Amino acid sequence: MVAGSMREREVLRAHSHRLSFASSSYDPLIKAVGEAQVVLIGDASHGTYEFYAHRANITKRLIEEKGFTAVAIEADWPDAFRINIYIHGGQLRSGKIKNACDSLAEFERFPKWMWKNEVMPPFIEWLKQHNQKVSETTGDSSQTVSVYGMDLYSLHRSAQQVIDYLEKVDPEGAKTARKKYNCFERFGEDTMRYAYETQFGLKKDCHREVIENLKALLRDHHRIIEQEMAETNDGRPREEQFVAEMNALVVKDAEEYYRTMMTEDVLSWNLRDDHFARTLARIAQFLGAEKGSGTAKIVVWAHNSHVGDARATDMGKRRREINVGQRCREIFGDDQVFNIGFLTNRGTVTAAHNWDEPPHLQKMNPPIDSSIEAVFDKWADDDCYVVTHRIATDEKGMAKKLPVSEDLSDFLNRPRYQRFIGVIYRRLTEIASHYSKCSVAQQYDAVAHVRKTRGIQPLEQEDTWKGPKAEQDQTFPFGL
């Protein structure tokens, strides 16, 4: 038994790479990514500085060295698109976006610190400068980087943006769309009221109306673009139509999500993550067409519970939940997708005690003995990561994902508990609230462990959501 443990310890150490903020420490990871089209980078909490900082550093290298041109984040589409406007040097009808902090102004729903934090402004400013450099040196806007949100909680805001767009390009279409979206007026802006009253048959839902609006936008796609292109020589009409279609998709999927969330939590979770994946597919299709290559490379920022393949977790095996990590492997192909997880051991985390409450800097409990975090803490040296798979290119130019070591995979795939902290942390019920069993080498293509982490610093004091009363999401009440 002791000899076996020693061999396993040596296997882990032999494949461990030192992790630091030095750019060179990511070299083995960047090499393992190969020519993947989608790289998903997770975090074990939404309130840890090191996760955000490492993720930003890795993303910069993927952009500069691997040609990635999109960053998709676990955020609502309208909120993230303000960042996109800023990094491309654009402006809003209301005026210019003043700086990187101002580009985060739309993030007003709990938990604001998830994106309004100390790491984001410098990263956003880097993206803006990168895009300026690319535009000046190549004159090719298709090589610049875009930022998009892939979440679905902006039902009312996205509906309004669809109407605003149609009022500009198709006034009659705007009237029709407004009439259909007015179906939601019976419920006010309280999406929880919509969820309750439609789930239990108290009022008719708006399912047909949101589908008809999306179909109309897709049907008129070419006509609107050709009409608008006749008045301008740039590519803005294509992008504006794409944004409108994505907002209409958000409304359609959000309607279904809220309609099922009261009694079918697994279905609503699956609807959300499937929306993530379909959003990524549409982004890849749109940017690929803009480049003329048919493909575009995307970096995804989301929680480990979304990024790691659900089929390797109890969430997938027992609850039949899917996630975007699984769906990306299915949609883009396993050989085109690289999943990275980040774990922590001890330190502090920025998280709320309950939903819609201010965050606190909380001390984390030590990981439980039967967890993967405890294995890394006991056997790994300092902060490190292991690569379980690498993507190689064969003689025909085809990408192929290969295991790095069968011994390493066998060791890491033994089901162990893994800690998942979202925006809420409950220390007193931590095992029940935050742990799930996982097979790590199947879940991730690389996994990093930071021995001691600190809570991320919010940019501003957090308060409760001031917008529509209850545009709550699947992270409620667990905060994943």
UniProtKB/TrEMBL annotation:
Q: Where is this region: Disordered?
A: 459-480
SUPFAM superfamilies, per the entry:
EreA/ChaN-like (SSF159501)
The UniProt entry's GO biological process terms, in alphabetical order, are: response to antibiotic
**Bias category Basic and acidic residues: which stretches?**
463-472
**Name of the protein described by the UniProt record:** Erythromycin esterase
